[in-house]
Amino acid sequence: MNILFLYKEEWEKDYVSQKLSGHTITFSKSLDEVNKETLGATEVLSIFVYHKCGESEISKMPNLKLIATRSTGFDHIDLEFTKARGVEVCFVPSYGENTVAEFTFALILSLSRKIPEAHNQVTSTGSFTQGNLRGFDLAGKTIGVVGTGRIGSHVIKIAKGFGMEVIAYDPYPKQGLDLELGFRYAQFEELLSLSDVITLHAMLDDSTYHMINDLSIQHIKHGAVLINTARGGLVQTSSLAKALEGGVVSAAGLDVLEEENLMGEELKLLSDPGKHTEEINNILVNNYLVNHPRVIVTPHIAFNTEEAIRRILDTTIDNICSFALSNEVKNKVAI
C-alpha cells in the first residue's frame, strides 16, 4: 500500500521502514511538504496529535482509505468528513497509562513541594533559605480524578500509594472499579467542591469541551490545585486565569493548553486578526499562564518516554498491517 507517514523524529523512519517493508512509504514532517502526486496516491495516512486532519487536508488524498493516528485522542480528525468519504480511522487505545499517570504526579509533587522555585532559588542566588518554600503533604488530601479510563485508573492507584483520599467522576462509571481500587464515584460538581487536587483524564469531545469554565469553577474548593495532562480544550483558558487571580485555584500543572500548536505563531495570526480573534486571545492568556509564578507549563510531554513512543509506533504499525493484509480495522474509532 502507499503509506504517507508524518514523522516527528529521524529514527522513526528506519524503525517504521523495517516493520512495514513491502509497502511504499513516504515520510514527511507535514502535509504541506508533500507533492500533489504523492498525496493523490496515498492510501494510508499516519499522523500524530499535532497534525490537523480536516476536510481540506483529506480532500487532497482522493485514494485515502485509512487514517492511523498515533494517539489516544482523535479530536484533531474531522470524523464526520471521514465518515462521509468512507475513510476508516484507527487509534492507539493504550500506550502508557503508567507513563501519563507518572507525569501527572510529577506535576503534583512539583507544585506541592515547590520544586521549581527551590531549584531556581539555589541556581540563581545560591541561597538555601527555606521559609518561602514550604509545601504541603499529599497524604490525607483528597484528589479528584476526572475520567476513570486506563490513565485515570492508574492515577488512582498511585494516589492510594501516597495515602490520598480518592473520589472520581466519570459519566460512564466502571462497574466494580471503585471497590477494586478503593475510591468512590461522585458527581462532577461534588468532586470539584471536595478535592484538594483536581486532575483531568477525560477525552475531548462536545460533552467535555471547556468542562472547567466560569460556571464549574464556582464549585471548586478554594485553594485547590488543577492538573491537566489530557487535552487543552477541557479547560477554558480565560476562566482558569481568573480562578488563579482570585485564589480559587492556588496552582496549576498544565501539560496541555488551548491553541498550544499556535504558540510562537503570533505574527502569522496577526496577519488577519479578525479571522483569528479567539486564537489570539487564547495565546495571550497562555502567555499569562506560562509566566505565572504558581503555574507549571510543559510542552505536551506526559506521553514522551522511550518505552511509550515505541509502544505507540508498534500499535500503529500493527493497525496498518492488519488493514493492509486483511482489510481489518484494528482499534477502530467508532464514527
Please provide a written account of the structure:
There is one protein chain. It is built from 14 helices and 12 strands. Helix 3 links the parallel strand 3 and strand 4. Helix content is 39%, strand content 15%. It has a 7-stranded parallel beta sheet with strand order 8-7-6-9-10-11-12, sandwiched between helices. Strands 2-1-3-4-5 form a 5-stranded parallel beta sheet, sandwiched between helices. Helix 5 crosses helix 7. The two termini are 24 Å apart. With 335 residues, it is of the alpha/beta class.
| Span of the ends, CA to CA | 24 Å
Structure summary, number of beta strands: 12
Following the backbone from N to C, one meets helices and strands in this order, namely: EHEHEHEHEHHEHEHEHEHEHEHHEH
Derived structural class? alpha/beta
Query: What fraction of the residues are assigned to beta strands by DSSP?
Result: 15-25%
Q: Widest sheet: strand order?
A: 8-7-6-9-10-11-12
Low-confidence stretches: none
| Rg result | 21 Å
Overall outline: globular
Main sheet summary: 7 strands, parallel
The level of helicity is 25-40%
Q: What is the residue-averaged pLDDT?
A: 93
Layout of strands and helices, then pairs:
Layout: E1 2-6, H1 11-19, E2 24-28, H2 36-41, E3 44-47, H3 55-58, E4 66-69, H4 79-85, E5 88-90, H5 97-112, H6 115-125, E6 142-146, H7 150-161, E7 165-169, H8 177-181, E8 184-185, H9 188-194, E9 197-200, H10 214-217, E10 224-228, H11 237-246, E11 249-254, H12 266-270, H13 277-290, E12 295-297, H14 306-326
Parallel strand pairs: 1-2, 1-3, 3-4, 4-5, 6-7, 6-9, 7-8, 9-10, 10-11, 11-12
